[in-house]
Amino acid sequence: MTGKRYPTAAAVALVCAATVLAAPGTAFASPSPNPSPTPHSDKSLEQVRKEIDDLYHDAGVATDAYNAAEEKAEKQSEQIVELAKDIAKGQAKLKKLKARAGAAARAQYRAGGMPSEAKLMLSADPGQFLDGAGRMREGEKATKGMLTELERTQEDLRIYAKDATARWTKLEANRKSKAAAKKKIKKKISAAEELESTLEKEERERLRKLEEEAARKKQSAWVSSGVLKDVDGKATNRGKKAVEFATAQIGKPYVWGAEGPGSYDCSGLTSQAWAAAGRGIPRTSQEQWKQLPRVDIKNMRPGDLIIYHADASHVGMYLGDGAIVHAPRPGRNVTIAGAGSMQILGVVRPDK
User: Rounded to 5 degrees, what are φ and ψ at 329?
Assistant: First the structure.
């Protein structure tokens, strides 16, 4: 550890969490309905732990897909609403233009259908002829402009309608993607919960200790590598606000797809924390990894986001001194953990 100060809002939480720094929060499954489940050896229990981790990891990947589809659907819905407004305006404009064109046609009919040029040629007053000729040119120009505008408005409406149809198609595709992701999330979580429910109470306690020990070993190896030796970055004002928001959510449950205020998923927590700090960032951990500026671990500072796993399926917010605050997985609460307790993909900075 580096001995640096934590942001004020995180200090108490970090002290309280010192004994479990290397491990995410833990929740117990409901007792098994089977009164005599088959006991597991430590070796088989470790295998169960890995299976549960894999299931929750897959649920996390599906959650990112769900969040991405939801975000796209929201944007597409907003765009369709704007297109509908444009179409309504265009239709009103077209109605007025058609009314003007109709009035011009009726005026010509009332004049006996004789072309304006012929009437001017038959005029006995040269001054009237010249004056009339000027007005006629202006009228022709205005009529031509009106017809051009009429054609342009009709073309705009055609484009708007085509665009709206395309966006509706994409919206429906994203709704289907979201439904498929939701189904996969529920399936993976149910499988993990079912697997954990086969354990006896003592085995669930052993499982919790195995999880903590695995996380502690990873964190210890990460710290021992000297990776934190040169890490002494100071949080910006926005970074402090983001950290204060995130640590204030400690103890609230993880719920996939949630963005607060009562519950969060991993990227829901980080995106809302930075929104509270006045900086909008992508909703999902994968998009946060793709779109936000990347920094070396040695240059990270409180408020930066650490992206985890090769598929960027998890994210936590760096607090300083090798710790993060994050929403771990279903059945767990927002908590503090060791930044190296999971496989780090990289670090991104929202306020660079």
Answer: -170, 175
